[in-house]
Amino acid sequence: MKIISVLAAVAILSTSYALDDDCATIWNDDATHRTNTTSAIRLTMLHTQHRCSPVRRQMAIPPSWHHSLALDRERQLEARLLFRRRAPPRNLSTPVTSTIAGGMYGFMAQVAIGTPPRTQTVLIDTAGSLSWVQCDPCVRNGCYNQDGPLFDTRTSSTYTKVPCSTQLCQSVAAVVRTSCSSGDNTCLYRVPYMDRSATEGCVSRDTLTVGQEKIPGFMFGCSRHYERTFGRYAGIFGFANDRVSFFSQVVEKCRQYRAFSYYLPSPSSVGYIQVGSYDEGGLAFTPMFTQNQDYFLALTGITVDGVPLDLASTKFSGQPQPGPSAFAMYLDLGSALSILPTKVYNRLCDAVAKGIKGYDRIQSGQGCCFDPSFLATERLVPTVQMHFKNAVRLVLNEARLTYETPDERLCLAFQPSSQFLLGSMQVQMTYLVQDVEKSIMGFPRT
Questions:
Q1: Residue 124 CA from chain centroid, whole number
Q2: The Peptidase A1 domain covers which part of the protein (predicted)?
Q3: What's the pLDDT score for residue 142?
């Protein structure tokens, strides 16, 4: 019995080492850090349910992607919260948070900070502002366990704190809460989240390494205290439309074109996100608007098998108006599920229930769900399309419209609230462009 136990342990260790080698190859492949047609700066991006994810690797029995999404959705519904991590737009009335809080559903990348560079695995949030990672030394019991060592500021020869009296601190104060330390006049930050967690620390600068590119003086939050938990990721890197996001700093410091493009991977594939010029081939463009640091599109309609839903009764005072007969739809990859006003969500559910074949609609705490019909000989889910200005369409097939629960129910990958928000499930495995310079967004031409 002891011999068998030892052999089993050796097999597990061997598998672990092989996985580590495989993951290192995926992360360090130079081809993923550049493109053949542009000079843009590219980051490899993996789904948080990829086998190389810190969350997956720490689990004895890794959950399936759909299972983890269902568990997260159920937990968030019980807490009367939605799927968004960052603070919502000011006119979004329902409190929201994101499943990326626990790293169960989201997208991650690797960057290196300091001199010498120390690799950090971070979550990508296209609506996030100030980027941050955990730093050592940490306030007593103030840091959670992450995959790999914390960034030790004492070992970097290029690390500096940002003083309160500088323009840099004022730039941070424009997007997050700041204060001054009484001891050394360091610029301090605090970012509270809607799930009552928060990160706080000092605003810092250091050399950031992305692939072969070194970016000196990159500004970020050095988190020395995080309330509650945050999975095993080092922090968050944001792409919001403000001066302090990762995106804006790369554009300025590396003289890149002001745009970012990405391919969102499945849990078993490899994707990327890049800053700078992009390939326009095969894309159709729709106007993209900004409000504060948020991005949003002009949604002109939603159809189910070609039949339009009634959106006319969903106007709200204080909501951005992108034009007549159009509705502001926010963009946020930090949200797994898309959000619809409750009336529109209910109409979508009714329309899908009318057009679906081989499934029976059920009452479920998980939202609009369907059970497989026992005697069904055909299973068919209707095609839903989102329509944007300039006749741009986003086609939602079954994989983008629904997700499967552990008990094989099919549920709509949407959430009811008071606004429109486009989440990541609806655009997964799709090449997209957010051209901030021209205020347009590119979708695959259909």
A1: 5
A2: 107-444
A3: 85
